[in-house]
UniProtKB/TrEMBL annotation:
Top-level division of the source organism's lineage: Eukaryota
Lineage: Eukaryota, Metazoa, Ecdysozoa, Nematoda, Chromadorea
InterPro entries per UniProt: Oocyte-zygote_transition_reg (IPR052782), Prot-tyrosine_phosphatase-like (IPR029021), PTP_cat (IPR000242), Tyr_Pase_AS (IPR016130), Tyr_Pase_cat (IPR003595), Tyr_Pase_dom (IPR000387)
GO-annotated molecular function: protein tyrosine phosphatase activity
SUPFAM superfamilies reported in the protein's UniProt record: (Phosphotyrosine protein) phosphatases II
Family annotation (Pfam families): Y_phosphatase
Database matches in CDD domains: PTPc
Start and end residues of each Tyrosine-protein phosphatase domain: 53-315
Name this protein carries in UniProt: Protein-tyrosine-phosphatase
Length: 343
């Protein structure tokens, strides 16, 4: 086990107030309670099947209401936005405070049912926004970052090299007269305990700010999740979310635009939060509307929307929360249709 995994495992045991790990085997009572919670979600998913869920997703059209994104428009001329057509909502955007020379960063807080600031969804840092990004992490006491893209994808630059590695063990970024230093501590290939094919590098860094403050952060780089596509619908993302859940500060998630792959992760945790809190799980379309009200246009493709449903159905099956013969047959049919939809 890597030094990163050991440290996170230790911190997990020391915090008894946290919800139990989702990958642990539930007791019979927990299984009975969870079964009640998921019935509506599973019924909705299996009634629609992938073809119906695709139509459901298409009906929830994506759009930008720039009257709700005034700060985003003003920041455009300063080169602080990666994409002109990926807006940042004003109502819950992250604002950089003193002593930073400006407040804008393309980032939004996104809530889950029990945590008002569970996530910060943001764009991949640009060369001129790296200092902003790391100051945000300091300000918000971020312990966990999920990076879901690569620096270059399909020949296009998707992210600036904003975090240190063994080759570049210390990086310095400046904004005006303010300086941020990010120091490499350790890194390793993340070792999944569940059935998972994802390639993830876990890097521990220390961020030091302009006023002497510092923050230890674990950076998880998922380097084989395809742009606008989906990875295998196994337990990888649920295990990473489980690992990050004890974080007291927001979990920072970004891909390139910070809405597609990022939105998929947020939607999965939204459902797991309802499950762990003993709440009935809402239908996927209702959940996505609530997420998009916080991070505009979250989840970009029907494949990503289907991926979220397939991961959850696989998880419910793995935990024996859907054991009836008729349901099992429907799940098999769903898997077969899903495979044809996301090729």
């Amino acid at each position: 086990m890597s030094s990163v995994n050991k440290k996170r495992k230790g911190s997990r045991k020391s915090d008894n107030s946290q919800k139990s790990a989702v990958l642990d085997e539930p007791t019979n009572l927990e299984r009975k309670q969870q079964k009640k919670q998921i019935i509506k979600f599973v019924s909705h998913s299996l009634e629609k099947m992938p073809s119906g869920l695709r139509q459901e997703f298409v009906s929830m059209k994506r759009f930008n209401d720039f009257e709700k994104m005034k700060a985003f428009k003003e920041a455009q001329e300063h080169g602080k936005n990666r994409y002109k057509d990926v807006g940042c909502l004003d109502n819950n955007r992250v604002k950089l405070g003193s002593p930073w020379p400006h407040e804008y960063i393309h980032a939004n807080y996104v809530a889950t049912p029990t945590m008002p600031k569970r996530f910060i969804c943001t764009q991949a840092p640009l060369e001129k926004t790296c200092a902003d990004f790391w100051f945000m992490c300091l300000q918000e006491k971020v312990e966990t970052i999920f990076m879901l893209c690569n620096l270059v994808e399909k020949g296009s630059k998707k992210c600036y090299e904003y975090y240190p590695s063994k080759k570049k063990d210390t990086l310095e970024f400046e904004e005006g007269d303010k300086k941020i230093t990010v120091k490499y501590e350790s890194s390793s290939q993340y070792s999944f305990k569940a059935d998972a094919k994802a390639k993830v590098i876990a890097t521990e860094v220390v961020v030091e700010g302009p006023s002497g403050e510092s923050q230890k952060t674990i950076h998880y780089h998922w380097n084989d999740w395809p742009d606008r596509g989906v990875p295998p619908a196994d337990m990888a993302i649920l295990e990473l979310l489980d690992r990050a859940r004890p974080s007291k500060g927001p979990i920072v998630v970004h891909c390139s635009a910070g809405i597609g792959r990022t939105g998929s992760v947020v939607m999965l945790e939204y459902v797991m939060d309802q499950l762990l809190a003993g709440m009935q799980i809402e239908d996927g379309d209702k959940i996505l509307v609530k997420i998009r009200e916080q991070r505009n246009n979250s989840i970009q493709t029907d494949a990503q929307y289907l991926f979220v449903h397939q991961v959850l159905l696989n998880y419910f099956r793995k935990k024996k929360l859907v054991e009836e013969k008729g349901v099992q047959d429907a799940l098999d049919a769903f898997v077969e249709q899903y495979g044809k939809c996301v090729v």
